[in-house]
Structure formats: C-alpha cells, structure tokens
Amino acid sequence: MYKYLLCWKYLRGRYIALASVVSVMLGVATLIVVNAVMAGFATKMRSRLHGFLSDIVVMSYDRNGFANADEVTARIRQIAGDDVEAMAGTMETYAILRFYVGGSEVTKEVKLIGVKPEERAKTGDFAEFLFDENDRPAPASFEVSEELRKKTSPAAGVLGENMDDDILNQALRKQALDDVPPRGAILGYAMATARDPEKHRDEYLAPRGTKVMLVFARASKRPEPATDEFTVVSFFKSGMSEYDSSIVFVPLERLQFMLGIGDGEGRGAVNQIHIKLKPGSKADLNVLARKIQRGLERLRPLYFKVATWEEMQGPLLAAVSIEQDILNMLLFFIIAVAGFGILAIFSMIVVEKTRDIGVLKALGASTTGVGGIFLGYGLALGIVGAGTGLAGGLLFVKYINKIEDALSALTGQRVFNPDIYYFSEIPTRVEPLTVAWVFCGALLIAVLASVWPAIRAARLRPVEALRYE
User: Fold this and answer.
1) What's the longest Cα–Cα distance across the chain?
2) Over the Cα atoms of the chain, what is R_g?
C-alpha cells in the first residue's frame, strides 16, 4: 500500500514532473492529430483514385486497341461470373488541345479518353466528378444543348440587333449555329481554369460553350494527323491534379471514327475495359485479376495487361504510405524526448531522496517494493500524460475544422484553402489501432525511462543511505 501512497504523493507534489507530463501529452496529441489528418487525406485520395479507375482494368499493349471487345467482355464474365456488376470500354490516346482566350490561342498536351458516359458512370464515380462553371453537378452526357449552341456562337446572339433583313438575319443565324460543333467534350477542371492571385480564386479560360480543337494521330500504318472540334459541356473535377490537369473526355464513337478504328455507330476498337465488381463481392481483386489475365492469355497471348486499381497507382500509394511512416517515426521522437526527461527527473529524485529510501528499507521495505515505487511513478506519469494527450488529440480532430475557421478569422488568411485542395473541409479519419499503439507506446517509454532510476533506488543499502545522517 505504501508504494501507491508514495506514487500519489510524488505525482501531486513534484511539479518538476509536470514537464514530463506535458511532453508526453503533446507528443501523443500531435501523433493522433497528424495520423488522423493524413489518414483522412489518404482515404479521400484512395477513394477518388478508385472511383476513377474502377476495380480492375484490362489494357492492351497496342495503342490502337482491340476490335473484339464483345468477345473480351464475354470471356471476362465467363471467368468472373456473378462478381461483375458492370464493364465499360474506353479508348485512350494523346492529343493536342487548342482553344482561344481573348483572341490568344492556348495549346496544351492532353490525354484524350473516349467513353460512353452512361456505361462509364456505372463502373466508378465518373458522374460524381462532373460539374459546371457554377460548381453545380452536371449530367454524364456529351449533349450540346441549344443554350450552349448559342453561347458557343456569339454571332448568333447579335445578328438580330444589327440586321434589318429578317430573311438574311435568319439565314446567318442558322449558319452561325450550324458552325457550332454538335459533339460535346468534358475538360479537366485544372486545364480549363487559371488561378487569379489577386482574387484568390480560379477563373475559367474555357467555360461551357467554348469551342475546342483536338489534334491527334490516326491509327494507321503511317500515322496521319487528324483534327476534330468539340463544344465544352462540363468539367471533370476529381481533386487529383494528375487527372484534372490533363484529361479530356469525348464520345467514344466519335473518337473511334476519327482514329479510323470505328464506324461511328459504336462498333470499334477500345484499348481499355474498366470492370466494377458487385458491392459485397468476396472476390479478392488481385486473385481475380490474375485469373482474368490467364483467361485472356488464351484468347491472345502477350497482348493484354490486367491490373487492379491499386496496382495502377502503386507508386503514388506507396509514396503516401512511406511518407506517413516516416512522419510517425519523427514525431514519435517527441515522446522519446519526454522519456529522457523522465529518466533525468527520476535520477534526481533518487539522489534527493536517498535518506528517505534508506529509512524505508530500514523499516522493512523490500528491494522490489522500493523499485516498484519508481516504476509505478513512471507508469502514473505515462498514464496521465498519454491520457490527457489522447483526449486532447481526439477533441482537436473532432473540432479541427472549427479551429481552422477560428485561426483563419484570427490571421485573416485561410489555413486550409478548399479551392486549392478541392475539399470543403479538412478530411480526418481516426483509426483505433493507431490510437492504441500511440497510447501504449507512450506508456512503454515512460515505464522504460523509470527502470534505471528504480534499479538504482532498489540497490541502495540502508547503512550506506543513512551513513552521513
């Protein structure tokens, strides 16, 4: 019983130990907050990558793709069985995008993707990433509405003001509207906008209704340039700059026709097939991908590549994981510093309380009992520090967006700008296992730091401790 009484007395009376408690508390709280924010960002990123790429992607090594898409999808369904919910063929190639801004031509290299929007929307979050210039959800469609046709052709809106001849006016208006490309295109958000440093917002260079030209190489033995014009109907805003700054979606049938690998009616070659599994499917993605790979090898050897969405984004996901591990290791040193502080403080206490230790041992206290006082003291400091840090960290995570709002109001500058990160608020995710190892790690460091002082105190002999008293 005396061990617990002395631990409690030292914990209340030794204010120098407060420094160790604060160090442990700050270390634990920092680790919990950083892990929650990084896990939140990683979860958002994985969700958006997964939504764009679907569960499994079948690709051809040939850029011109394969014309027997129906046969390939039939083989995939035969292999995967009832696990497949939807599949969508796409055609990907590279192109040069050209449009005009205030009379000046803008030219960009882009990844051109031909899709059937209704099919592509069933295999991922394609439809959820489509917006108009007012940041409102846009339909998954390439349809050029009458409103956009008029917007694309400014002349159609002013002819009536400058012409007296109704017949000529109507003829010119019809000709102007006929010049509007009837085919829609979906541009990546970052490609169609530019950041205004003074207004701190994105300004549209190519708003809806803009006429854009795409230049790409036709699929032939001797590649020849092909050009086509489209009208911007919406924007793809996934929050991943890799996609938002480089991707243009166009109708699959039109791209196949212009590449010379389709008839314009939807019958043509594709070079990718996106596969989405049914919700709740127990199939392992990696195992199923390997099965599909083996099945397609029999169809056409060394031509298809089958990969899960994680394999396609492996380097990026690995980089995020490594960064999180390194940051955790560096931040854990804060708790280690607190451990050295406990070691130094306890060593001082042993020297200061040598006489008291001698009296305890003279009164019959055992070596184990004396050592247990300091081990218990270290454990108590660890529990108090880790406990308050745990509570503080979790509260900070819970109200992190309100704290960010308060700091932004105080400093006059947004700490977390949603226009840059594409998130309306700071994403967080508390993982119980991470919280548990942070808490237990802090306790372990506190106890280990008190082992050496406990051993020194336990080895003191009553005669030596009271020699000079």
Assistant:
1) 121
2) 33
Q: What percent of the chain has pLDDT over 70?
A: 79
| One-letter identity of residue 130 | L
The Cβ-side half-sphere exposure at 296, using a 13 Å CA radius, reads 29
Confidence of residue 116 (pLDDT cuts 50, 70, 90): very high
Q: Answer yes or no: do 78 and 216 share one domain.
A: yes
Domain identity same for 256 and 129: yes
Same domain, 383 and 272: no
Bridge pairing between strands 130-131 and 104-115: unpaired
| Pairing state between β 193-196 and 184-188 | unpaired
Which long-range contacts does 189-194 make (Cβ < 8 Å, 24+ apart)? 189/131, 189/235, 189/236, 189/237, 189/244, 190/241, 190/244, 190/245, 191/97, 191/108, 191/110, 191/244, 191/245, 191/246, 191/247, 191/248, 192/232, 192/235
Helix (H) or strand (E) holding 343: helix 314-352
Alpha-carbon distance of 166 to 332, in angstroms, equals 79
Burial 403-437 (b: 16+ CB within 10 A, else e): eeeeeeeeeeeeebeeeeebeeebbbbbeeebbeb
Task: Indicate the helix (H) or strand (E) that contains 185.
Answer: strand 184-188
Whether residue 53 lies inside any domain: the answer is no
Same domain, 209 and 338: no
Let me know: does 409 contact 45? Beta carbons within 8 Å: no
Provide the domain limits for residue 437.
2-46+316-465
Let me know if residue 91 belongs to a domain. yes
pLDDT for 463 beyond 70: no
Cα 214 from Cα 218, distance rounded (Å): 12
The residue to which tokens 């829609």 are assigned: 184
pLDDT in tens, 423-455: 667 888 998 998 998 899 888 888 888 888 777
d(CA 434, CA 397): 14
